[in-house]
Amino acid sequence: MPELLQxxxxxxxLPAALFKRVHRGRPRFECPLCGYLxxxxxxxxFAGRRRHAECPGxxxxxxxxxxxxxxxxxLNTRDVSQKKMLHFAPEPFFRGFFFTRFGGYETADxxxxxxxxxxDLQKLPFKDASFDFVFASNVLExxxxxxxxxxxxxxxxxxxxxxxxxxxxxxxxTIEYPAANPHEAFHFRAPGxxxxxxxxxFFSRVACFTSESVPxxxxxxxxxxxxxxxxxxxxxxxxxxxxxxxxxxxxxYV
Length: 254
What we know:
This protein is an alpha/beta fold. The protein is built from 6 helices and 15 strands.
């Protein structure tokens, strides 16, 4: 029943203008992707309710807004007009953003329709040093052997390449699961603030940007009560204090 209720709510969401009018008393934020200015929607997910999560204008979530600001900072320091990038599990928010900046833009996923390459991140078919830039957001937590996947990403990057590889940080320290949890969108792990150590084993430098790295007007924090973890559905997730949590964007340099 809860899942059915969530689907009904999602289908009958108020248009942005009407949502803004109905909720005009709530805090106002700005979306760096579409320019919407006003209150953001709360969301109900498998981990509970998240406040101020979704932009009513374009549907971008906390992580998308944080990533957009960081991507602009990173890419504005480089001329990528002749560079080639690979976008895993491509979000609609970023397709146009990347396509107009890079000289070559290709998409990939294990099973998503409409991508250029149907590939397993643990065993990529591309030659060494094939791409200048790789973007894979909230992907590695779904991969059984994430270290092998990171190794493969590093292999296909050129000597001056970089990769942006965010994962949802939901623990102080990373917890590996014995198997994928269907109640957590088939996550194989609960990434922690130490997850960047996995990247450091393969990249020369890793710069981690957090929700505190961007203006609060974009609302890049995860407002979520994690004090009730673990639960029956998520028995390995530890509790986390507070109701406002950081998200992280790791930028990995070859």
